[in-house]
Amino acid sequence: MTPGAPKAVCLLSGGLDSATCLAAARRDGFECYALSFDYGQRHRVELKAAARVAASLGATKHAVTTIDLRLFGHSALTGEIDVPKGRSVDEMSHDIPVTYVPARNTIFLSFAVAWAETLGAADIFIGVNALDYSGYPDCRPEYIEAFERMANLATRAGTEGQTKLRIHTPLIRLTKAGIVKFATELGVDLGLTFSCYDPDATGRPCGGCDSCLLRAKGFAEAGLMDPAR
After folding, report:
1. According to DSSP H, which parts of 7-140 are helical?
2. Where do the domains of the chain lie?
3. What is the tens place of the pLDDT at every residue in 75-99?
């Protein structure tokens, strides 16, 4: 790590997108503090992938915080609702699916803002994507822009003018194939990542959920083999 490098908080799920986002932050010269969440998700195996990715990409620290969003339910990822399988890309892009977790990115970014302010960091990285995605409203550019404005109004650092918080979304205009290619250029070991909403009891991807299908689509269109498969 370069002495005096600026600090950044990087949200890290352990999936393809967040791993690539962390690698982009490292490439840009940031000292990275990776933040993952155990929120009661059915695919908690992703946290093991997050730990592997954080170590591989040289995060200064990897924190995992626990918040139980099962309390509210209303999502196939945190409640007793079946995860949709075999949906087409067109179906994924038109409706908000039952795998949407209410306010998840707002909650995650709020934690990231709190840690960034504690660290004296002005930068937060999140791997949201607005092209090949599953219809989540909190992955759109206008949402990120609005949250950044709010964060600068809501923090002591922002209010006193000590620093201006910036939320970086290096993947937001990339297709999934573009993300796969970008990750390869950055030297990310994609075999360490995990992308599935409904793994089996041994932690193997189901192959049919939106996350699995979008990942497969990305590798196919990039003309590359998925090392995690």
Report:
1. 16-27, 46-56, 89-94, 104-119
2. 7-222
3. 999 988 999 999 887 777 777 888 8
